[in-house]
Specification:
Blueprint: E1 13-20, H1 32-44, E2 48-54, E3 59-66, H2 69-75, E4 88-94, E5 121-125, H3 129-138, E6 143-148, E7 153-157, E8 164-168, H4 178-183, E9 189-195, H5 199-208, E10 213-219, E11 225-230, E12 236-241, H6 251-265
Length: about 270
């Protein structure tokens, strides 16, 4: 019986390769095709996080994963930015202690394993696509990232790389049961949650646009403040911010206080 190969250890350490250009470097900067081929190889083995030019001072930055410094060095052997004349080439090991909302730096599953790579879009059923486009753009500040009027296809999103809302208007030519099933999802609680920098400001914006607010600003037991509202078709959304009401400790702070009280009672 053939022995099942052991899975390779997933690299969790992050590395930054920084190249700073000198006066003699610019004529030797690698061509975009060389850089692209190098990055494609990096990405195929699941190591690439991000790469791009530095502006001031000029140069190039590459962020990637590796098991250790030895592997990081091996991965950079074919780096087209290595040994450029007049440049400073540096490799730093980095251990981030916190990442922002929506930023994923954990290593992905191995390629070819059917891994999920992105939450791309979520459907929202509307009665009038053009009216919906105006509302989502003007009231919520979303941008149209895809629009094919012939195919009646529309996507709106906060920006490139963020999850899109696919605005779907039911059409009788779809036939049954697709038409009736889609129409039945018009005006429901979508379960979609937005984060905002201020639910108070969002509430003012919604009221100014005469949007329906189904539940005003509330402070939740875990410390977030939330608001529920609907679009013109009655599709309900929730938005939250992380501000804690003045004079009210967050749930995390309350748990910490209770733990301290128990320790002092012992």
């Amino acid at each position: 019986m053939a022995e099942t190969p052991r899975p390779r250890r997933k690299p969790r350490r992050l590395f930054l390769r920084i190249v700073r250009f000198g006066a003699d470097t610019f004529e030797a900067v690698p061509k975009p095709r060389e850089v692209r081929e190098f990055l494609d190889r990096f990405d195929r083995v699941g190591r690439l996080i991000a790469q791009g030019p530095l502006v001031d001072p000029p140069g190039d930055l590459l962020m990637f994963r590796a098991v250790d410094s030895a592997e990081a060095g091996r991965l950079l052997r074919r780096d087209p930015f290595r040994d450029l004349p007049g440049s400073v080439y540096q490799l730093h090991s980095w251990s981030p202690s916190r990442s922002g909302v929506g930023v994923v730096i954990e290593p992905p599953p191995a390629r070819g394993s059917g891994r999920l790579t992105l939450v791309h879009r979520v459907p929202v059923v509307v009665s009038d696509q053009e009216r919906a486009i105006d509302w989502y753009r003007e009231v919520l500040g979303l941008s149209v990232v895809a629009h094919d009027s012939d195919a009646h296809y529309v996507e709106v999103a906060l920006g490139p790389g963020s999850v899109a809302l696919s605005l779907i208007a039911p059409r009788t030519e779809w036939g049954e049961p697709e038409y009736s099933e889609t129409k039945a999802r018009l005006g429901i609680s979508t379960g979609i949650v937005f984060q905002t920098d201020s639910v108070d400001a969002l509430e003012l914006r919604l009221r100014h646009a005469n949007a329906r607010i189904t539940r005003g600003v509330e402070v939740q037991p875990w410390g977030e403040r939330t608001i529920r509202f609907t679009d013109p078709d009655g599709n309900e959304f929730l938005a939250f911010d992380r501000r804690v009401a003045r004079g009210r400790p967050s749930a995390i702070e309350e748990r910490g206080k209770k733990a301290g009280d128990r320790s002092s009672d012992r």
